[in-house]
Design a protein that fits this description.
By secondary structure, this protein is of the alpha+beta class. Among the domains are: 1-47, no CATH class; 117-217. Helix content is 46%, strand content 20%. Strands 3, 6, 7, 8, 9, 10, 11 and 12 form an eight-stranded antiparallel β-sheet that branches. Helix 1 packs antiparallel against helix 5 (226-249). The longest helix has 66 residues, at 49-114. It is rod-shaped. Residues 1-8, 16-20 and 36-42 have low confidence and may be disordered.
């Protein structure tokens, strides 16, 4: 039969309960049963104190093991994030390198465009003649001399056909018919005198009579000027730098 032994303990301590099984065939006689104090479970004098300490250490070890597993999982996640970020950085470095090459090309273009700035007064003189619908006297055929403007026009001249030329690289105007440049008659292609004949679309090659286009040939309709080209290059340069900066911020 079973018999329980209960130890008397204070309310704030843990008690140890023992269950003793006594076989019927072996009766046990306690001639003078007396209560005894075995000891508190966590008391220094308790016979189970070493076992309780061992259990406590095992619980700590189990907690440390659980914490270790959690930390290892965190490390795996961090390593994955590091690998992903590293790949993004490498991709961004490649894009930035391409952007730097593009910016270098832009600077070269800007320098090339700015090299024409000394000719700005002559280009302005040419534009003023066209906007007035006037012919251009560019030299003296008797002496065989060209003016400064004549030298410039001779450098930018593009022959359309014998006796006809234009200067699309020098100046253009945006009109109701599109972007156009003036067409001049140049006697024997000598470059001494240019008579304004008509206007031609830069992109389609369509030619329009002077009288139809001339009202739209105004300073505010100029396109492709040196100043505009420099401003456009600077705007593109700023845009590329801004995009690179934003990509770094989004990492």
């Amino acid at each position: 039969m079973g018999s329980a032994v209960v130890a008397d303990t204070p309310a704030d301590c843990q008690a140890l309960f023992l269950k003793i099984d006594i076989l019927p065939s072996q009766p046990c006689h306690f001639p003078k049963p007396e209560p005894c104090e075995i000891g508190y479970l966590y008391g220094q004098d308790c016979v189970f104190a070493p076992l309780a300490k061992l259990c406590s250490q095992l619980l700590k070890i189990e907690k440390l093991s659980t914490d270790k597993i959690g930390l290892e999982a965190d490390i795996l996640v961090l390593n994955h994030k590091k690998s992903t970020t590293q790949k993004k950085l490498e991709e961004l470095d490649g894009k930035i390198e391409s952007s730097n090459i593009f910016l270098k090309a832009l600077r070269q273009i800007k320098q090339f465009i700015q090299s024409y700035l000394p000719f700005a007064p002559l280009i302005e003189e040419f534009a003023n003649h066209v906007e007035r619908g006037a012919d251009i006297e560019a030299g003296n055929s008797f002496r065989g001399l060209l003016t400064a403007l004549g030298e410039l026009l001779n450098s930018f001249k593009e022959i359309i056909k014998d006796g006809l030329c234009w200067f699309p690289r020098l100046m253009r105007w945006q009109t109701s018919k599109g972007e156009v440049s003036p067409v001049f008659e140049d006697s024997r292609n000598e470059g001494y005198y240019y008579r304004l004949k008509s206007y031609m679309d830069i992109h389609t090659g369509q030619e329009y009579p002077k009288e139809l286009i001339q009202p739209g040939i105004k300073p505010e309709n100029r396109t492709g000027t040196i100043e505009q080209l420099v401003q456009n290059v600077e705007a593109v340069e700023k845009l590329v730098r801004l995009k690179c900066f934003k990509k770094y911020l989004h990492l």
